[in-house]
Amino acid sequence: MTLVHVPVHVPPCPPLDSTPAGAQDLATDLRAAAIAVKNVQGWAASIAAPAWAGDSAQAHDHAATRVAVRLDAGEAALDRAVTAADRFGERLARLFVRRGRINADRAEVNDRIDVLVADVAAATDDSRLAELQGRADLLHRRASALRDRIEAWKAARTRVEADFVAALQRVDSLAEGAAAAARPARPDTVDLARQLRRLRGDPVALAAWWRGLRRAEQEALTTEHPGLVGNTGGVPMADRDEANRGELARDLDYYGERDDDAQLTGREERILDNARSVDDALDEHAGLTDDSGAHLTTLLAATPDLHSGDGGVAVGFGDPDTADHVSVNVPGLTTDTSSVGANLDKTLALHEAAVNEERGSVATVYWADYDAPSGNPLDPLDPLGQADFDSVALSGKAEDGGERLSDFVDGVRGSDQGPPAHLTAIGHSYGSTAVGHALADGLPVDDAVLLGSPGVPAGTAGELTDAEVWVGSKDHDPVSLLGNGDRGGLGALGHDPADIAFGGTRFETGDGELRAEELLHNHTSYFTGTSLANVAHVVAAADDEVTEQPPRGAPGGGHLTLPELLVAAGGATAAEGLADAATWAWEHSKLGGRL
Amino acid sequence: MTITLDVPYAVLKAARDRWDASADELDGAWRRLAKISTVDLSDAVAAAVTAFADPWVDEVKAVARCAQGYADEFVFFRRLLVLVDQAQAERLRALLPWAQRDAVVDEVSWP
Q: Which of A416, A510, B67, B90 would staple B23 via disulfide (CB 3.0–4.6 Å)?
């Protein structure tokens, strides 16, 4: 038989020597240092001698003036390094994606080569010679093109690293830092901050303005005002993440120093505790990367000194700006920043379930940037609880939380890229009440999921929102029996959305076990099993996959009232059951449950 | 000879606290730079990062020490209760905000 020249396998495209996540971590360290230096430089400059005042000898001897000038060089050098590191990470991410495509094509070509080899070996005569030779020629061309792509990729990898090294080398001395500080083209962060503040409240306009800035301007503003950039709707989520991570690292450094010196005030101690909780939670998931090799987690809001010292935080898995499906998950009572770790596990479970739906890219956000009540609002016999959490105050915190949630979601819509994302708001327990208030104020989401809800501020889904409302309520979850419904209910926080009159779609969750020791579990297990699968279906817009169960009050939707449940679960009397209903939540939340 | 510096105590305390906080801020910064992450970076990039960071670690550390020294000087002057010469008074004034540059340095005249 005539010889057929089959191409050899194409070798794999080599890995990146520097990874996108590694560049992100480097940039975070540089930002943290830049933020700290700018904090001191800004203060020193604010009390320094103006250029036009005083005699020069006096100004030269003035300590703050000298420090301001000296640190300005470091500030300029760090800004340049941050900008270079950011660009480096972005270019590495593009190389990462490109490598993935090359290796996918390579796998396909090598598979075809293997098939051809087998076909040639099986050929006993020249009857298929032309066909086999034609396939071999085609594969030769494809293999050759792939090798060229790999060589071009390797050259680009070398170039990207060399550019970054050169950028760092341009500011790796004090003299070069001073020269960078003197450059007229240096970003004017005062003017940039003024413009950003002016556009706050208009996320769409702000997003457009931000996109028009140079990278150096964005980075200079980020390290000058990380709290502002990191928590303003309309700033791209990836940039918010960078600002918040930089500020978080700076907080750990600064308050850590003061902790070592035993100088922390009570407020500073809480900030440091909050920062450490968030840092630990991010560390726990640091090994997860997205399709571009960057960290999967994104720190989308960080307000460690707000909310009565509890702090606020929002962490995403995936980038909400680019995802096809975005969900924002709001936790409930007793939420504070220290609980972020456990709550992120639930959010990650939902993220993975939604990704596995394979209906497009997904970003899943845990949002706890509101002042959830920390005490017992439900116990009529608790004087402290009554004083701190009468029904007006309780409802007020949900309203305030709803407003902050609306601002955040407006930001998600404002910085969204490409076609508008399919957006779902999820509220668990008291968080569902906060989501309810946001919905009542026009929260711009496509779907709303209310889990274990103690009530929402409308009698029907149609009165509440134009979005589709989905309800997960286990009949043996006592918190879900607090709202007004077909068999009564305390109603302090509004209507039971699982009630037939409400008109939402109640999806299957199971009822949970009817035992006292399982009641807490029933309330805190919506992110598992059938319930989780149904929430994931909603998040991924797979509505036809959702399995339903009858609303309360509908045929097949019979249920116990809260006092009846507590009696049945614990063997108490009916009279005791009502009192127990009020104290139940607090008793269990102290044991670690989150409502 | 006894010298006075005509500055409110609150100004002195605020200045001392801010210099001290600045020292903590800068200590955090140079320590962050000194252990800057080079994980998952190539050898060439890691070397360039270290070469960039080293001089700025030294510089920020030096300014941090200055700031701590200034904060400590306030403590020192407070312990003196009174300033013993004009140079000390002018030195202390130089650590205050520029707005205090005209604070009166004066010799106490004893009856």
A: B67
Contact between chains at B98 and A171 (C-beta distance less than 8 A): no
pLDDT > 60? residue A364: yes
- A159 and A240 co-located in one domain: no
- Mutation target to probe the B interface, by most B beta carbons within 10 A, among A165, A252, A279 is A165
Mutate which of A160, A254, A272 to disrupt the B interface (most B C-beta within 10 Å)? A254
Q: Is the pLDDT of residue A262 over 70?
A: yes
What is the rounded CA–CA span in Å between residue A226 and residue A203? 17
CB < 8 Å to B44, chain A: 17, 161, 165
Residue of A nearest to B56 (CA): A74
Q: How many domains does chain A have?
A: 3
Judgement on whether residues A157 and A33 belong to the same structural domain of the protein: yes
- A165 domain residue, yes or no: yes
Q: Which residues of A touch B56 (CB under 8 A)?
A: 33, 74, 77-78, 177
* Interface mutation target, options A60, A247, A253, chain B, most CBs of B under 10 Å: A253
Residue from A430, A427, A525, A429 nearest A469 by CA: A427
**B contact residues 18-37, partner A, Cβ 8 Å cutoff:** 18, 20-22, 24-33, 36-37
Q: To the nearest whole angstrom, how far is the Cα of A27 from the nearest Cα of chain B?
A: 9
Q: In the predicted model, is pLDDT for residue A387 greater than 60?
A: no
Domain end position, chosen among A199, A224, A249 = A224
Write b or e for each residue in A260-295: b if 16 or more Cβ atoms lie within 10 A of its Cβ, otherwise e: eeeebeeebebbbbbbbbbbebbeebeeebbebbbb
**Which two tokens mark A89?**
């990470």
Q: Is residue A255 domain-resident?
A: yes
Contacts of A249 in chain B (CB under 8 A): 32
- pLDDT at residue A335 is higher than 90: no
| Residue with token string 């400590």 | B72
pLDDT recorded at residue A375: 54
Q: Residues B72-91: what's their mean pLDDT? A: 69
Q: Select from B24, B42, B59 the Cβ nearest to the Cβ of A174.
A: B59
Least confident of A311-315, A448-452, B57-61: A311-315
User: Which CATH number belongs to the domain containing residue A340 in this structure?
Assistant: 3.40.50.1820
Cα distance between residue A554 and residue A112, in whole Å: 59
B86 touching A (Cβ < 8 Å):
no
- What does the pLDDT look like over B7-38, one tens digit per residue? 677 778 888 899 999 999 999 999 999 999 99
Residue A563 domain-assigned (yes or no): yes
Q: Are A304 and A274 in contact (CB under 8 A)?
A: yes
Query: Is position A9 within any domain?
Result: no
pLDDT at A55: 59
pLDDT band at B79 (very low <50, low <70, confident <90, very high): low
Residue of A nearest to B47 (CA): A165
